[in-house]
From TrEMBL:
Protein name: GxxExxY protein
Organism of origin: Algoriphagus yeomjeoni
UniProt xrefs under InterPro entries: GxxExxY (IPR026350), PDDEXK-like_dom_sf (IPR011604)
Gene3D superfamilies: 3.90.320.10
Domain of life: Bacteria
Amino acid sequence: MALTQKIVNDLSYKIIGAAIEVHKHLGPGLLESIYHKCLAIEFETRNIKFSSELIIPIEYKGHSIDTQLRCDFLVENLIVVEIKSVAEILPIHQAQLINYLNLLKSPKGILINFNVVNIFHHGQKTIVNKYFEVLDND
C-alpha cells in the first residue's frame, strides 16, 4: 500500500485524540514530563506505534555528530510529536519541530501544548513539509 496524505492525516487525528484524552483527565498546568508519560500510555492503549525520546541523527559532511538531540515522539515512523507545557507556543518551538521533521525526513509534525484550556482549538499546531507534499494525494 502506498503511503498517502490521507494515511498521514488519519494518524494525525488519532494522535490529537490521544492528547485530548490525556488533557481531559489531567487538565493544564502540570510538568511536560507528566504529559509525556501519560501520552505514551495513551498511545499504547490505542495501539499507536511510537518511539519516545528518539535521538535524532545529525550528519555533517559525512560525519555523524553526537548531539543527543531528541524528539519527544516519532509516531509510526511518520509523524514527529513535540509536547510542551508552556504559557504560549513561541516561534522557537515551531523551528525546533521543523528541524526535527527535516532531520528525520518526516512528512508531518504536531506541536502540542498541554498548558491550555482546550487542546483542539488552542493547543496544537500541525506542520507539513516537502516530504508530505510528495506523498500520493489519495
